[in-house]
Amino acid sequence: MSVLVTGATGFIGEHVVDLLLKEGFGVIGTARSLEKAQKVHAQFNNNPKVSFEIVPELTALDAFDNLFRERGESIQSVIHMASPFISGATNFGNQLLVPARNGTIAIFNAIKRYGKKVRRVVFTSSLLALAEGRKLGDRTFTFNEGDWSSVTWETCQSDPMNAYGGSKKFAEQAAWEFVESHRDEINFKLTAVIPAMVLGPHKFAEDVKDHLNLSNKIIDGLLNSSPDQTSLPKMHASFIDVRDVARAHLIALQKESATDQRICVFKSTFGSQDILDILNARFPELRGKISSGPNPGKGDQTPSCSYDFSFSDEILGFEFKTLEESVYDTVEQVLSVR
After folding, report:
1. Which among 168, 169, 203, 321 is annotated as catalytic?
2. Top-level CATH class of 2-130+143-199+239-265?
3. PANTHER family in the record, alphabetically (predicted)?
4. Which end of the chain is more exposed for a tag (fewer CB within 10 A), N or C?
């Protein structure tokens, strides 16, 4: 029996696949192209416990039907991570909102029809499904696992990031609504894993040659700053290390107390000054070559909201990696490759 992982070739997905293999699971990954699937399969040394299926288009409501018709009998669990993000999107509905929501409905319908042996489904959501950006800097707010962003289909379409946040909210809501509506027809339990901005090293260093994931580009931009640069990108966000996100997915898959729950996987916030302080302290060879920021050694001074994720912490039962660990490992990988 295997775990189906959609988005298995992505930044988080590759770490999830790695942990699943180490735990002895077989993995069926989805990819949007044969080329990408073959590359990642080779990176996992063509492990016979890993195979890939091509699902090029998430928008169609039968996108996963063929996969489950052919392989549904061998799938015991599903981790649904695939979700579009197009930084240059202009048609937010068709490029982000519809594919995310329809992709979720499509895989749940396929499980209901053909995945009778599936017992657990883990859905990868986002902090942006929990709270819209404007509240994250408001120290009067304290968020917990029960909160939802107040964005609507109409109000989230002002720019790609807001549209992405909306897409995550509506996709997760579609997942919970599906489970509730079809409770008598399905055999699986649902868990949502909710990470914030995901930092950390790529699973395979060679991928750094091509591109960094969107979150790590923030670190890369500061790594390429100039010594006299004091105006920094306006960055104030909650973060989590990619390896902790992967670990949380396995716990969500295996732990009974995680079923029917939203599990938040983040605590700390950071800003550009925090990253520069780490770079200058941990990489002496960079001092004098990159910016030290407007407030060296003082970290981010931006006000932040608060989080109460004690319920999630109890389920997860492990300490998250610090920002320093995450930034150091990311930059060490980047410098070793370049």
Report:
1. 168
2. alpha beta
3. NAD DEPENDENT EPIMERASE/DEHYDRATASE, NADPH-DEPENDENT METHYLGLYOXAL REDUCTASE GRE2
4. C
Structure tokens at 181: 């509506």
Spans of all domains in the chain: 2-130+143-199+239-265
Could you list the pLDDT tens digit for every one of the 338 residues in the chain? Answer: 899 999 999 999 999 999 999 999 999 999 989 999 999 999 999 999 999 999 988 778 899 999 999 999 999 999 999 887 766 667 777 778 888 999 999 999 999 999 999 999 999 999 999 987 777 777 888 889 999 999 889 888 888 888 888 999 999 999 999 999 999 999 999 999 999 999 999 999 988 875 677 788 889 889 989 998 888 877 788 999 999 999 999 999 999 999 999 999 998 889 999 999 999 999 999 999 999 988 899 888 777 788 899 999 999 999 999 999 999 999 999 999 87
Number of helices (H) and strands (E), helices first, in the chain? 14, 12
Report the candidate in 289, 294, 297, 296 with the shortest Cα–Cα distance to residue 226: 289
180: enclosing H helix or E strand? helix 160-181
How far apart, in whole angstroms, are the C-alpha atoms of residue 315 and residue 307?
Answer: 16
Report how far residue 321's alpha carbon sits from residue 178's, in angstroms, rounded to the nearest whole number: 34
Query: Would strands 236-241 and 142-143 be described as parallel, antiparallel, or unpaired?
Result: unpaired
CA distances from 257 to 25, 101, 189 (A): 21, 26, 11
Tokens of 310: 């004690």
Q: Other CB atoms closer than 10 Å to residue 252's CB: what's the count?
A: 26
Report how far residue 197's alpha carbon sits from residue 127's, in angstroms, rounded to the nearest whole number: 8
Please tell me the number of Cα atoms within 13 Å of 207 on its side-chain side: 20
What the block records as the tokens of 180 is 């509730």
β-pairing verdict for 261-265 and 189-195: parallel
Residue 238's closest CA among 277, 209, 271, 286? 271
Taking the C-alpha atoms of residue 22 and residue 160, their distance in angstroms, rounded to an integer, is 36
| Cβ contact 195:126 at 8 Å | yes
Cβ–Cβ under 8 Å, residues 11 and 202: yes
CA dihedral 286, 289, 291, 296 (to 10 degrees): 50
